[in-house]
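About this split. The held-out portion is used to measure sequence recovery: a designer receives only the structure tokens and must propose an amino acid at every position. Recovery is the fraction of positions where the proposal matches the reference. Here is one held-out target exactly as it appears in the evaluation file.
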């Protein structure tokens, strides 16, 4: 019995040491995760009241183009952005014309007031990419992506499309504050409509 007791004591000491070590490691991991977590004070899920829009110079319409777009024969399409801390909305605008075209983008809060009101100039026979998060990628075609940070304040949105301009888009669950189109993440195509009443279901049939 006397020979067994030291082994039991040593085993107990080792077990306690291992347990304390695991607790310390768990605490360090929790601290690291907390330090790497996004600041939620003014995040996409808890945004400030000031929209963030960054349009590269080559996609900024000049006053004459804005005036021409205001009187142009356009088609209005509606969609619902999804832009939380873990998701991002991506838009593509295709211009099939031989001249530049100006697309208006407006988003609205739940109470109907305007949150974002901006315009994008799409060069002739070209495509522009719009992202709700800053794009960080080695992909050359995404280097001049436009930033329109919809945030959770944008309950629904609309775009005024000149003839010959097409739109496509999707929501990506990027799980962070930046977006890399090369990352394999879940995506969901956006549903566009020219009828705002069809963006949200008007009723639910429970029969």
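Reference sequence for scoring:
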């Amino acid at each position: 019995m006397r020979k067994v007791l030291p082994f039991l004591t040593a085993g107990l000491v080792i077990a306690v040491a291992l347990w304390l070590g695991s607790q310390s490691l768990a605490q360090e991991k929790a601290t690291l995760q907390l330090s790497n977590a996004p600041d939620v004070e003014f995040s996409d899920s808890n945004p400030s009241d000031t929209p963030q829009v960054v349009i590269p110079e080559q996609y900024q319409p000049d006053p004459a183009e804005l005036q021409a777009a205001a009187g142009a024969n356009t088609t209005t399409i509606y969609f619902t952005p999804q832009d939380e801390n873990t998701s991002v909305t991506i838009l593509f605008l295709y211009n099939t014309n031989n001249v530049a075209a100006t697309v208006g983008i407006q988003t609205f809060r739940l109470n109907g007031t305007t949150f974002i009101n901006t315009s994008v100039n799409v060069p002739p026979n070209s495509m522009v990419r719009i992202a709700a998060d800053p794009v960080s990628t080695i992909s050359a075609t995404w280097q001049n992506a436009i930033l329109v940070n919809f945030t959770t304040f944008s309950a629904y949105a609309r775009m005024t499309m000149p003839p010959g301009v097409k739109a496509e888009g999707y929501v990506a669950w990027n799980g962070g504050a930046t977006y890399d189109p090369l990352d394999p993440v879940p995506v969901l195509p956006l549903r566009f409509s020219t009828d705002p009443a069809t963006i949200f279901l008007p009723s639910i049939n429970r029969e």
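Annotator remark: Residues 15-42, 203-207 have pLDDT under 50 and may be disordered.
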